[in-house]
Write a structure and sequence with these properties.
With about 350 residues, this protein is of the alpha/beta class. Helix content is about 50%, strand content about 10%. The longest helix is centred in the middle third of the chain and has 25 residues, at about 170-195. The relative contact order is 0.14. Bound molecules: coproporphyrinogen III.
Length: about 350
């Protein structure tokens, strides 16, 4: 039965009864039950306390017919374990206390052994597998090296990525050393998640769209490739989500992953032609489309499904994370419409 999940079948490009769907950031602030827990606990406490993280992972599944669970955590968890102090400020997003911009700064970081440094993540996965048995499969995840390096070098979110690009161009040795340390950490982290029971893993390259193709090739590609190579021995589907990366698509495919995650800025049908028939495709509903009236949401779901033509290997998702102000009944309507319109 285990391999019979709709979601896992789609990941392997096998026949399904209808297209599976989940939402990036499905565990989070758009749910009042999340906000209620969050009032009582800090964000780090939520990430590091298995009972809380498990509860928050399960919350959206109780409301909606989602076809997969994604463990509640954050891409910044392994960076904190590497030695970087990170704070979550209300409304400002995460802030890195000591940004990494020099060889001396690098000395403050170390590569982690995930089992030792973040055992709580593996505990969350083990509990979730028991809770989800016979229901839906569990997705584990990591940030990709460039996205994580950007956080460390910029000190938080960024519009221009001036510091991380300056480090690349002016101090490539430090940049490459940082990327190596992060890649080793990500490999250890994803291997540990798979060994703990994650049935699918997703690599989030959320900020890579700020780079041109030549820079992607030189400064990003080798690291992402190395991660997928290191995971090759594990027979779990790997999703590679590169945000705002339509101009980088062939390179993203070459870097690795069985399923390519698309943001909403690209045409799914044309993108799949570029990606090729040997890969699945995930996406790509515009998250702000969920603020439209429900009939319009249904129309927009249909449009994407028409582009995918019920081909094996399509996983429906948002083109990026769900926004905290999204009406829950609209998200629910999207999910129900996916199942309804794609029934084979
Ligand atoms: O998808 C899920 O439901 C699983 C949980 C998850 C979170 N973050 C929970 C979270 C996942 C997969 C992430 C990934 C993540 N985190 C990414 C990559 C995905 C993407 O959106 O591109 C990034 C870039 C981050 C970094 C991060 N963490 C940011 C920018 C923020 C602030 C967001 C904001 O709008 O303020 C976070 C915090 C965070 N991560 C929250 C949640 C539910 C909100 C924290 C809170 O309760 O205040």
């Amino acid at each position: 039965m285990k391999n019979d999940y709709r979601f896992l079948r789609a990941c392997r490009r096998q026949d399904v009864d209808c297209t599976p769907v989940w939402m990036m950031r499905q565990a989070g602030r758009y749910l009042p039950e999340y906000r209620a827990l969050r009032k009582k606990h800090s964000f780090w406490e939520m990430c590091k306390t298995p009972e809380l993280a498990v509860e928050v992972t399960l919350q959206p599944l109780r409301r909606m017919k989602l076809d997969a669970a994604i463990m509640f955590s954050d891409i910044l968890v392994p960076l904190e374990a590497m030695g970087s102090a990170i704070e979550f400020h209300e409304g400002r997003g995460p802030v890195v206390e000591r940004p990494i911009r020099s060889a001396a700064d690098l000395e403050t970081l170390h590569v982690i052994d995930a089992e030792e440094s973040v055992p709580f993540v593996m505990e969350i996965i083990r509990i979730l597998r028991r809770e989800l048995e016979g229901k839906v499969p569990l997705i584990g995840f990591s940030g990709a090296p460039f996205t994580l390096a950007s956080y460390l070098v910029e000190g938080g979110g960024s519009k221009q990525y001036q510091h991380v690009k300056t480090l690349m161009y002016a101090n490539p040795e430090v940049y490459h050393k940082l990327m190596e340390m992060i890649s080793e950490t990500v490999i250890s982290y994803l291997k540990a998640q798979i060994e703990a029971g994650a049935q699918i893993v997703q690599l989030f390259d959320s900020w890579v769209g700020c780079l041109g193709p030549l820079d992607y090739q030189e400064y990003v590609f080798p690291y992402n490739r190395k991660i997928f190579d290191a995971l090759d021995a594990y027979d779990v589907p790997k999703i590679h989500f590169a945000n705002q990366a339509s101009t980088l698509l062939p390179q993203v495919v070459a870097a690795g992953g069985d399923i390519i995650g698309l943001d909403w800025r690209q045409d799914l049908k044309k993108a799949w032609e570029i990606i090729g028939p040997d890969h699945g495709v995930q996406g790509n509903f515009e998250p702000i489309g969920l603020f439209a009236p429900i009939p319009e949401i249904r129309k927009r779901v249909k449009r994407i499904l028409d582009q995918a033509e019920n081909r094996n290997g399509h996983i429906f998702n948002l083109g990026h994370g769900i926004l905290p102000t999204t009406p829950i009944d609209h998200a629910k309507a999207m999910i129900d419409a996916v199942h309804e319109f794609s029934a084979r």
